[in-house]
Amino acid sequence: MRSVSLVILALTLGLALMVDTGCMKCGSKTAEKMTEKAMEKAIEKSSGGKAKVDIGKNVDLSDLPAFLRYPGAKGIGRWSMSGEEGKGTVYTLQTGDPGGKVVDWYKASLTGAGWKQGSQIETEKGTTLIYGTSDKKQMATVTVGTEDKKTTVAVMYTQSK
Questions:
Q1: How far is Cα 75 from Cα 77, in angstroms, rounded to an integer?
Q2: Taking the CB of residue 107, how many other CB atoms lie within 10 A of it?
Q3: Beta bridge pairs of residue 12
Q4: Total domains in the fold of the chain
Q5: pLDDT at position 52
Q6: Is the torsion defined by CA of 32, 153, 85, 9 positive or negative?
Q7: What is the rounded distance in angstroms from the CA atom of residue 115 to the CA atom of residue 136?
Q8: Which residues contact 66 (CB under 8 A, 6 or more apart)?
Q9: 74 CB burial (10 A radius; 0-12, 13-18, 19+)
């Protein structure tokens, strides 16, 4: 359980680093690749696990379970980490749909997949949903926020062994 907590912490720190440094808006491929490598090294050093970071305009979302992929959203970021107890990945998606519609879709999709809601946190900046499987081996934290008529979704998906 401690390793899963480390995976979640490292993924959360990676998300904060990416947002705070403005990486999501990096203009050049070279800057993106340099940032990806720096983030991988920092995550690996802090966690002792393996990390993979991918940022850009069309990030591959194929390994994200279908019930966690918002229809029509584009992948703009992905970073993953694995350790002895499991693995986790944060996916960043973007859509033109309003935040409320996106939140409603995730609630229906996760419930339809048999996942149980752990909590829901609402602030002025957005909504965070936390869901998990009944055996607690998989967990998803979905954060939805809207700015400049674009809705950004951060999905942190973790699996324990």
A1: 6
A2: 16
A3: none
A4: 1
A5: 66
A6: positive
A7: 10
A8: none
A9: middle
Which residues neighbour 86 within 8 Å (Cβ) at sequence distance 6 or greater? 3, 4, 7, 158, 159, 160, 161
- Sign of the dihedral defined by the CA atoms of residues 154, 85, 138, 117, in that order: negative
DSSP summary character for residue 135: T
The single-letter DSSP state of residue 64 is S
Name the pTM for this structure: 0.71
pLDDT tens digits, one per residue of 3-25: 444 445 445 545 544 443 344 44
* Nearest in space to 152 (alpha carbons), one of 15, 10, 7: 15
What domain range is 6 assigned to?
A: 2-160
Q: How far is the C-alpha of 157 from the C-alpha of 120, rounded, in Å?
A: 16
Over range 49-75, report the average pLDDT: 83
CA distances from 112 to 3, 61, 106, 118, 141 (A): 29, 20, 10, 15, 16
